[in-house]
Amino acid sequence: MSTNSDKRVALITGITGQDGSYLAEFLLEKGYEVHGIIRRASSFNTARIQHLYEDPKCHRPGKMKLHYGDMTDSSSLIKVITAVQPTEIYNLAAQSHVMVSFEVSEYTAEVDAVGTVRLLDAIRTCGLEKSVKFYHASTSELYGRTSEVPQNERTPFYPRSPYGINYYSFYISLKQDFKHDIILLLIACAKLYSFWIVVNYREAYNMFACNGILFNHESPRRGETFVTRKVTRSIAKIQLGLQDFLELGNLDAKRDWGHAKDYVEAMWLMLQQEIPDDYVIATGESHSVREFVETAFQYVGRTIEWKGEGVKEIGQDAETGQLLVKINSKYFRPTEVDVLLGDASKAKEKFGWKPTTTFQDLVKDMMDADLALMKRDPTA
Ligand code: NAP
Ligand code: G4F
């Protein structure tokens, strides 16, 4: 017989995003009652989770319910937590696009930094700080300009964007002598602030709160403006004659790309441990944007030949000479993170997590999905 203490109730902020949708699926399969916070939008924003409450053939053990709320609105967070009485909270909501964070830096801080402390305080206001387990979506973006490769939980952070840190440009304009002393004052930052506020609430209030320092993870549900999805969608369109070529920024940035499905399992595993802690989640392999482009074109039988340099560089079909890739300087960032490569040995050792999807399989999964999508709906 199940008692109240056996009840597993998860609350997910950002449930409509890539990770939120996979995590909701994963927890429903485990029998959780899943609650998600969605924000009001002028058009539907639930496409990634539509199948979870619409498909009558999906007999999942758990149930899902959505609630309106926003990371910028404390009272909505308190109301949802009071109503739901969660046993686990997964904080995935964020303005998660690095390039966009340069355009909307204040809003990014409002959601990605202050939003986290609002949620932590809402848990305390509801008196759940001793019982709820809290996961926060931290990020490899925090490593930014580090010279340490690979990066693990002990690697110092050096963020390179308003998403990673605010007032970065102000900081670099300071004289070297002042930098060390003043940095603590200047860390009015987004994901970096969130990382430390999670650590602080764990230590100050004995909360079960974890940071998952996740390296890039992708899937067919990845937002269309992140580089991997932009590439796979564009190649699918080019193959179907719906687009001529693809425009990109920095081809030489390297990322440690895994599959989002593998990564949501790690989030859950962190909350099943005896002691709360912070963990790096990564594949341990790094590839450049250029390699991703080459591999995805290879999948549809085309070899890319690169010609020229800098903004004049182009990628052509080696056989036909057709122009397939162009550089557009508007996609370059004011500051770039050059190389990310994660070392997830702590997660492997503590709870046996390891990725199951290879780089080639990730590209294949995304290409197959986008080829099918564009055939079904060329206007997608
Ligand atoms: P995503 O697809 O961009 O999803 C972000 C989610 O946050 C969406 O559900 C979005 O709602 C919601 N959201 C945005 N602003 C909000 C607000 N003010 N109030 C409430 N909800 C809001 O991101 P993702 O790739 O799934 O990533 C999940 C989390 O992991 C994010 O925090 C991201 O920063 C972090 N992360 C991601 C990666 C990665 O490679 N994917 C790596 C490290 C860390 P709408 O659907 O309405 O826009
Ligand atoms: O796909 P991206 O936009 O991802 P980025 O900046 O690494 O951020 C993602 O991963 C972070 C984890 O490290 C998360 F925290 C964050 O929320 C997000 O999920 O860009 C990847 C690389 C960059 O170096 C960028 O300069 O691709 C390069 N790039 C080259 N051309 C491009 C493009 N990126 C985008 N989005 N669009 C381009 O046309």
Structure described in brief:
39% of the residues lie in helices and 16% in strands. It contains 13 helices and 15 strands.
Describe the protein's architecture and organization:
The chain has 13 helices and 15 strands. The chain is an alpha/beta fold and 380 residues long. The protein has a single domain (4-223, 258-285, 337-357), classed as Rossmann fold (3-Layer(aba) Sandwich), CATH 3.40.50.720. The strands form four sheets. A seven-stranded parallel β-sheet has the order 3-2-1-4-5-6-11, with helices on both faces. A hairpin with a 5-residue loop joins strand 14 (314-317) and strand 15 (323-327). Helix 1 crosses helix 10, helix 5 (105-125) packs parallel to helix 8 (191-205) and helix 9 (227-239) packs parallel to helix 11 (289-299). It is globular, with a radius of gyration of 21 Å. Residues 166-188 have low confidence and may be disordered. Bound molecules: NADP nicotinamide-adenine-dinucleotide phosphate and ligand G4F.
